[in-house]
User: What shape does this take?
Amino acid sequence: MPSNEDRRQFLKVGSLAAAGGLLAGAANAQSPMDPKPMPMSDGHAGHANHSEKPHPQVPAGSDVKAEMDGFSRFKPSRGNDPDSDYYLGKLMPGFRSAAAGPAPFVAPDLEKLPWKMVRGAKEFHLVPMAVEREFLPGYKMNVYGYNGSMPGPTIEVNQGDRVRIVVTNELPEATTTHWHGFELPVQYDGSETLTQNPIEPGKSFVYEFDVHEEGTFFYHAHVPMQEAFGSVGWFIVHPRKVFDPPVDRDFGLIFQNFFIEPTQTIADSWRMDWNWHTINGRSGPYTTPLVVKHGERVRIRLLDFSPMQHHPIHLHGHTFWVTGHEGARIPKSAWIPRNTELVGIAQASNFEFIANNPGDWMFHCHMVHHMMNHMTRQVGPRIRKGVSVDRYLANYSNRPRVDATRDDPGFDTPGYPQEMKSMNMSDAMMDTIWSRREVQGMRAMWPMSIMGLMTALRVLPEDLYHKVIETDEEIPKGSIFEEIVRRFGDPSTYQSGHNRGMHGMEM
Amino acid sequence: MKRRFSKSRMLLALALTGSASLASAQRPDPGKTFVPPPPVPEAPYGLSDLDAAGPLFPHEQLGDEAYSMTPPPVVVDGSVVDNAVPQDVQAAGYTLSDFLALAAQNNPTIRQARLQISGETAKALQAGLYPNPTLMYSGEQIGLDVPGDKDSPGEFQGLIVEQRFVTAGKLHLSREKYMRRAHVTEHLAIAQQFRVCNDVRRLFYQTLAASQVLELRRELLKTAEDGAVTARELYNQGQATRPEVRRSNITLQRARLDVLTAENHYREQFRRLVSLVGVDFTVASVSGSLMPETIPLSYQEALSTLLAESPELMAARAKLAGDRVTLQRERVEWVPDIVARGGSGYNFDAKETVAVAGVSIELPVFDRNQGTIRQAQADLMRQREEIRRVELDLQQRLATTYQQYLTSLQIATEYDRVIIPEAEMAYEELLESYKDNRVDWPDVLSAQHDLFDARLTQIQQLEMVRSNEVLVRGFMLEGGLQAAQGPTPPGHIDATPKPR
Assistant: This one.
C-alpha cells in the first residue's frame, strides 16, 4: 500500500505537463497584493476569462453537474428547497463516480496496517506497545499505541471480508483488543476476563471473524488506563455497495486528550484534566490540514477517543450533513445539516459536504480550553512592562526586583488581560510546521491560530491544489490565500498577514 | 477579641462600600468598576531606611574618636607590644586576616598570658637566689668583774658574721621548679592564643554567614514582593480571592521582618567580633568564603593530632614535670642547712682580741618535712590524673564537636553537590517553561523561593562546618575573653615567704 508520500510523488509525476507557470512571479507573500491578473494554466483548472477571475469548472471526464436544484458546488449556496435531495448539497455527488469504488480513506499522519491473505482471511498483525509520538515539532511524548504509532495504524477492509488479527503484546503488562462496534462472536470481543484471558506480555492472541458490517469502526485496548494512554486505531469497513452519493475524499480524524506536565514527556493517564490535545497524534498547528479541491464532495469521519471530554466540532464556511455514526450509516431521511456536531467519548461522526467555498477554514473543537495546549495563567513578567524572563535566567543568585507599577490603562478594566499569550514557538518548530506541502501558501501567522484540537480544511481551486500538493515549487507564504481572496473575495479590503513575531510578547 | 474582629469586619465592609461607590462615581462605565484588592501593608519601621548597597549605619563613619579607647602600651620582657590599629583598613570588606592581626595585638588575654610567663620566670629568679649573710654585733657578759676592774664592758664585744650554707641543691631545685612552671605558662599562652584566634575565626564565619543570610533574606523579600504583586494580578483576573491576597500580604510582611531580624543578627555578630578583637569599630561589611578550603579531617586524624599537640595537654604534661621537681625539692627540704658564723672582738677579761666561730645545724629529729613531701607526692599523682582527665575531656569535647562538624559538612557538601544544583535546575526549567507559556508564574516563584531557601540552609550548615572545623583544628580551645590561666591550681605549695 503506497504511503502518502509515494502517492504524492505519483500525482506529481503524472501531472507535470499541467503544472505550467501558475503563480510564477507571484507577489512576495507579505507585500500588498499584486492587482495584476495572475497567469493561469490551460485546461487544468479552467481558463482566465475577461473578468480576470477564472470560473471553476467540472473536470473533464466527470458528468456531474455544477449546480443542482439551486445548489452550486462552486459557490456558497443552499438550494431552492429544504425538501430537495440537493438542498445544501445533501445528495450531490462528487466528481468521482460510484463505479470507481470507494474513495481512498486518508487518516493524515497515520499509516495503514498491511495484510496478506492467509487461509481465506485477511491477516493483520497488530502489536500493542509503548511508542513515542511527536505531538509538536520537538515535543516527543511517551504514550501507548500499536506498531510504533499512536494512534495505531488503520485497518481497512471491505464489507464481507473475513479478518484474522494476530495481536502480539509487547507492552510490559497484560492487554486485550476490543473491536469497537462489531457484531462478532463473543469470544473475540476483547473484553478482558469477561470474554477472554488477558494477553500477557510477549504472548499473542488471534482474533478471527467475518465482517458483515460497513462503516466507521475502531479498535482499542480494553484496559482503561491504556485507552487513556492512547491505545486506539481506525477500523474502516468499506461498503459492498458504495455509499451514495459517492465522495471524492474520505478523511479520518481521531481526537484525543492527554495530560502531560511541563518539562515532562510521559502522559499522566491518572489525571482528571487534560492539557494536550491531538488529532491523529499531532497537536495544532502540527496537525495536517485537509486539502481538497473546490467542488469536491468530502467525507470526514471523526472519532472522539478522549478519556473524559466530549468535543463540539465546528467547521467554518460550510454546512455539513451528519451521515453516519460509529454504529451505522444513517438513512438519508435522518441526516442532519449542521455547522457544529457534538461528538461524545468513543463516538464517531461522519460529516459529508460539498467543498463549495474556497479558502483555509478552521475545523476544530469549540471548547475554549481545547483550542490551545497548556492553559497557563497570564500573571507574572509576561504582563509586566520592560520585564524579560531572560533577566531571571541570567542570574540565579540575584533576581530582579519586581516592579509593581502597572501603568497600562488596560488594568483599569477588571479581567484584563484575557488574551492568551500562546505557546512560544522556536524557529526550528516553525520550520518543521512550514515544511509540509499541505500548508504552503497559507497566511504567515496561521500557526498562531491553529492550536490544540484544531486543524484546517483547505478548499483550493484545482490549479492551486495542483501547485500545492502535486509540485515541489516554492510557494511564498500567503500567496495561495491571497489568490483565493483575489478570485473569490474582496481584494480591496484585504490586508496581508503580519510578519513573524508575536505581538505583545517580550519573553 | 470578638468585638475587635467584628469591628474590623465592619470597617472592611465600610471600606468596600466606600471604594465601590467611589469607583462607580468616578468611572460610571459598566464593566470597569470593581473592588480593588487589599492594599500592600507598609514596610516595618527601619526597613526602608536601610540601603542594601550602602553601610548599615550610614550616619556613623569611622573617625579618630572611634579609637579613643585604645589601651595603653604594654611592655613584656622588655619589649613594647605594638598596639597600632590599622586605620587604613577600608570600611568595607574586613577579612579574616584583618581581624586575626588586630586580635593578636589588642586582645588583653594574650597580653595577660605573656605576663603570666614573666611572672613565673621572676619567681624562678627569686627562688634560686642565695641567702644573704647576717652581720651581728655581739656583746657578752657585760658587767663581768675582772681583776682590776669591776663591772667591765663585758667579757666579749665584737662583730660576728653568720652565713647559711644551703645544702642538697635546694636553690637549684627551687629555680628549676619555677622555670618549669614558666614553661607551663608558655603552653598556656599558646592555648590562649588559640582561644582568641579560634574565637575570632568562629565569630568571623558567623558574621560572614550572617551577612550572606542577610543577602538571601533580601532575595526572599523580593520573591515575597513578587508574590504580593502576582496575587494582585491574579485578583484582577478573577483567579485569586481577597483572603489569598491578604495571605500574600502576611508572607510579604514576614519576609520583611526576616530581613530586619537578619540585619540585627548581623550587627550583633559583628559587634561580638570586634569586642573579641579588642578594638572599637562601627559595623561594616566582611568579606570571605564560607566554603572549607582544606580536605576534611577524619576523626582519627583529629584525635591523634589533638592528643599529640594540644597546648592544654602539653601544659598539663609540663606541669607534671614541674611537680616532679617540686617533689624532689620537698624531699631535700629536711636536709639541714649549715649555718656557720665567725667574728672577732675584744675580750675585756683577758684584755686581748679574740675570735669567735660556730657552726649550727638543725637536727631533723621530728620534722623531716614528711607532710609536705606527702602532699607533693599527692600533687604529682593528682597531676598524672589531671593529664588523663584533660585527655578524656578533650575526647569528649571532640566527640560532640566532630559529630557537629561531620554532620554539617555532609549536609553542606550535599547541598553544594546536589540540592542547590537541583533547585537551580528546577528553577531554570520552570523559568524556561514559563518563557514557553507552559507553567504559571506562581509555580516559578515557588521554585525561586525553594532555591533561596535551600541556599539559606546551606549557609547555616556552612557556618556550622566552619565553626566546628575551627575547634577541631584548633585543639578545641575557645573562650578568647576568659582571663589567661596560671600554671597551678589554687592552694598549691606556694605559701612560703620565699618561694621554694
